[in-house]
Amino acid sequence: MEATLQSQKALKIAKPAFTGHRLKQKHQNKKSPHNHCVCSAAQTPEQHAINPLQSSGVQLCCPICLSTPLTSSLYCKTCNRNFERPSSTPYTDLVITAPSASYTQPSWGGTELFRSPVISFVYERGWRQGFSWAGFPGADEEYNLAMKWLLPAAQGQPLLDLSCGSGLFTRRFITSKSFSHVIAADYSENMLKQTKTFISEDASITDDEYNLVRLDVARLPFKTGSLSAIHAGAALHCWPNPIAAMAEISRVLKPGGVFVASTFLSMTAPLGQFLGNDGLVEPLDAFEPQPGAYKWWKEGEIKGICEAVGLENYQRDRRLRFIMFSVTKPLVGNAAVR
Q: Which residues is 76 bridged to in the sheet?
């Protein structure tokens, strides 16, 4: 593949990821609208930020210790950490970020690209439509496929839309009225702002139906076994540490809970599907350069990481290089019976 064509295709398929790989903020002596998440010393209860999800039925926990509940406030007494939602942002920030410029985590291209306001703006204005070259059937059909697997487990329950991007599916989930609450989550600040912009344009959506949360997919700020359903559309290929992210998804799912996701397969996937044998053609994948910020998946790899974190009942819909799959958290004692 020519270098120019490679560059163009990488831009077509990019999708925001958000696994906390750039932890840099200016040290300031007073609060700033740009300080999305700051470490603070012990404060009086009156100074702790109020938990905006406390009436949603969603159970937050501290993303540092993953055990202390964040109930009425966003303060973790175990870690002595106060998470904040500055008034200038539409989201609650639960990413573990450094409070000063003393340390910068090495960044991941797929994560950092979509923190740009320009990329966030164009994502639904032409960018996402370009996924059709790989067999993605389009947002409406992808939504219908996802709902086929989500509803049995999550009807009337909260739904986490992970790697929500600009809210392409978030808005559909909210307006379906199938879920008691929708949490739109991403690592990109600007994607979350764009999500809020689009939601604000829909008069049928009320503020009590959703929340926006900035988080790290490898450090989910939710109580263990508390969520019935999680969706991640066109995201898995962008996550810097997919196995850590999948372990977190498994941790926060209830027994019987479902995870539905879509991503890109490798270049040999269409031929492998036609022949009915991926393994026969997968050696040819060595001739397709992997873009630095993304991973083209083999279906066997996807099944493997799901099994590795204890998720089962793998199902999928596959078309060319598009795949959407569903897995569930075993019911208590189910794995021991098999």
A: 81
